[in-house]
Structures are given as C-alpha cells and as structure tokens.
Amino acid sequence: MSDTGIDAPLMHPILRNDYAAKWLGIEVLKVADGHATISMELRQEMLNGFGIAHGGMIFALADTAFAMSCNPHTGSTDTITVAAGVDINFLKPGIPGRTLTAVANRRQQSGRSGIYDIQILQSVPGAEDEVLAEFRGRSRTIPKRP
C-alpha cells in the first residue's frame, strides 16, 4: 500500500473507502480529467433469477465510472460532485464470466452542472466487445461536508 492509502497501481481517491466498488472487483484502467475507464468480471453472485447480469450490477459499474469521471482524479478538499440524475438503457443481457467495461466521458460542463455519457461494454470471446448498456449522468458540484 502506498503512503496515500491507495492500494492499487491505478486508483481514484473516491475509491479509497468505496466498499461496494471493492466488492464488485472493479479495476481502474484509465483516469483523466472528465474521463474514467473501469472494468469488472461478471460473477455468479451478480446474476438475477434469469441467470444474466442483475441490472443493479451494471448500473453500479456505470455509476462508479460516472463518479470517477466527474470528480478530480487528484482529489479535492472543498467540493464533491454527485449525481443529480441518471438514465440507463439496457441493450443486451450480461453473460456470466464475461468482463464488463465502463467508459465514462464528460460531454458538457457549465458552472456546477455537468453531463456525462457512460458506455458499458461486454467482452465477447473471439470478437469485438459489444455495447451492453448506455448511461447518461447529470452531475452537480456541491461543497464537501465537514
């Protein structure tokens, strides 16, 4: 573990105490201003009664990428950026054992409000990744609570 308390080679400060992201097994692939790419393997305990990805698991992955893309990867001492609202569209079923990747990008920022698009991809053996879902987040920057 580094002296910052972050125990992964590539991490984001908001994940330091994010136990849900740890349980999901999220791996940070890339972080930059207004961008985050993360992934996780779709495990059996993440499936619904139909044997496909529970929508909440896909949403949680997208929401984590959203949070990482709208908060500075260098950290902030005075503000946090949170979700003001989101929409998600599920396009295909998530298949157990596949890797899901969320790619988040800021589309627009105006004052304390922002719009972010997150595409959730699913690995396909022997083929290109396919789009599993599309997520749009609306953010709001607020003062950090003491």
UniProtKB/TrEMBL annotation:
Entry-linked CDD domains: PaaI_thioesterase (cd03443)
Name of a matching Pfam family: 4HBT
Keyword Protease (UniProt): no
Keywords on record: Hydrolase
Keyword Iron set for record: no
GO molecular function: hydrolase activity
EC number(s) per entry: 3.1.2.-
Thioesterase domain ranges (all copies): 50-121
InterPro entries: Acyl-CoA_thioesterase_PaaI, HotDog_dom_sf, PaaD, PAAI_dom, Thioestr_dom
Protein name, as recorded: Acyl-CoA thioesterase
